[in-house]
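Exam revision sheet. Question 4 asks you to relate a sequence to its structure. Input first:
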Amino acid sequence: MDVTWHKPGPALGDCVESIVYFAGYNPAWQREKLLPDGRMELVVDLGDRHKRLYHTEMGAAGDDFCRSWISGVHRRPIVIEAQPLASMLAISFRPGGAAPFFGGAVHALTDRVFALADVIGPAASSLRDRILDAPDGLSMCRAAEAWLVERAGGLARRDPVVAFLAAEIAARPGSIAALMDRTGHSRRHIQALARRSFGTTLKAQARIARFQRLLADIRPESNWADLALAHGYADQPHMSHEFRAFAGMTPTDYAACYAGIADFLPIRLPASCGNLQDTAHSLD
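Answer key, structure tokens:
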């Protein structure tokens, strides 16, 4: 598989975590389960076939997307099609980093995926056309970077308070109430700012960040009680409850099917499903 990972320059670095191009992807599974990570993502599909976002792990029903789409912050896992030989470019925004490009649309995108054209109009075609015109992976990433700079009107920066909150949440903030008070603004103002910028409440963003830290520490031989204590959960049942909410499975089940990437799990359809994956696009 051909992969190009690009770190944006200073104009975007505060808002955009990475721009990744890949082609020739040929997975040995049919679907992929993506776990919440507190980030929004913009995906440009460089092929012509629709991609499906499934309603369930094994069912055929789902929503199809093509060309480009924007995925909001998710508080539950999503299941997507693992299409052979796909070619895509993905832009991953830092927590709170999508607001300079999408403004008030950020909160409306939470727990949803939308065609990019439905969110920003004709500018979606401009992005895809520029990427397709580029001669190689790095050039494609730079074309996307230039489009983002233009959309932001130059230098893209998160609100300083948002950047502070994101950094503190990533570093285990403790009390959310105390964190809000440290900003010098009213809690009401901070909660409204969080919804506009993160797409979730501050508490929800902190829960997702803690879940991500937990994922990074899980191993098949993990002691769950010790992990619960280390990550600030009240006890092991509390940790398990939170884990089920974000992953739709137990920590033990997650450890058993871990594939090397913390927030990604492959889904292999059983033989009894027959050609379900191939026929899914023709089903309601």
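Marking note for examiners. Residues 4 and 136 are 9 Å apart (CA to CA).
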